[in-house]
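Thread: quick sanity check before group meeting

JM: Hey all, I'm pulling together slides for Thursday and realized we never actually wrote out the predicted structure for the chain we discussed last week. Dropping the sequence here so it's in one place. If anyone has concerns about the input, flag it before I start.
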Amino acid sequence: MPAPQRRTLVYSVRLSPQESNAIQKIADARHLPASTLVRAWILDRLDAEQRA
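JM (edit): ok, ran it. Output follows.
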């Protein structure tokens, strides 16, 4: 029997075109989807906040 799937949440975030373009440029340079880059940033910050 497969393991039960965990539910995930989706957050909507409003960004200016300039902010969105800056994220996309960084993601492109790292050969990542922008959503993967932003998720990694959020998880890094969450970890730092929890350690503080």
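AS: nice. DSSP finds two helices and no strands in the chain. The mean pLDDT is 94.
JM: adding both to the slides.
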